[in-house]
Design brief:
The protein has helices at about 40-50, 65-70, 70-75, 75-125, 130-145, 150-170; strands at about 10-15, 55-65, 175-180. The chain is α/β, with parallel strands linked by helices. The chain has one domain (about 10-180). Strands 1-2-3 form a three-stranded parallel β-sheet. Helix 4 (about 75-125) runs antiparallel to helix 6 (about 150-170). It starts with 8 loop residues before the first strand and ends in a 6-residue tail after the last strand.
């Protein structure tokens, strides 16, 4: 008999006085479509980044008791899901753009490398012996330098963008729970 693993839940806790604290106040869109406040986004994303990848995410929003019954509090889960889903899509578009630039850069780089190889072979045959080697090596180095950017894009640059997109997708699927607290004079 095999043991079944329990799915762990990683919790992100946010304590606010009003639901509007989470959202950008100058955003003219209805509540469900508003952008998250930059600080709130950084807080949630930073905390999610620190949590283990395995397991589900849960965002627990601590609110004063009267605030929990407002329409904004009821729409909070939908608003967070839409926001992080939208951000993941935008980051996905950024990733697609990076690959598009990478493909164009690669086409240019390979063309330059091919031209440099042809010219270096021709120059090495025509130039006198001490200079032919310098010309040949210089052109080959230039050809490989022309491929630096596409190589960098396809080997390194896309990883962090992909990780960020996946993190936002993960946050978008997080369960949102409201937990009321009694407001005191200090709050």
């Amino acid at each position: 008999m095999g043991e079944q693993k329990q799915a762990t839940t990683n919790v992100i806790e946010v304590r606010i006085a009003t639901v509007s604290q989470l959202f950008h106040t100058l955003d003219p869109y209805p509540f469900r479509d508003r952008d998250l406040d930059k600080d709130a986004e950084e807080f949630i994303v930073g905390w999610a980044r620190e949590l283990p990848v395995e397991g589900c995410l849960k965002i627990v929003v601590h609110l004063p008791e009267p605030e929990c019954s407002t329409p904004g509090a009821g729409d909070l889960a939908t608003a967070l899901k839409r926001y992080f889903t939208n951000r993941a899509e935008v980051i996905g578009l950024d990733l697609n753009e990076l690959f598009r630039v990478g493909r164009r850069s690669l086409a240019i780089g390979l063309s330059v490398l091919s031209l440099c190889i042809i010219v270096s072979q021709t120059a090495s045959a025509l130039a006198p012996p001490p200079f032919n080697r310098v010309i040949e090596e210089s052109l080959l180095i230039f050809g490989w330098v022309a491929n630096w950017r596409p190589i960098e894009i396809f080997l390194y640059d896309w990883w962090p963008i992909n990780r960020r997109r996946n993190l936002y997708r993960r946050i978008a699927t997080a369960q949102v729970e409201l937990r009321p607290y009694k407001q005191t004079a200090a709050d």
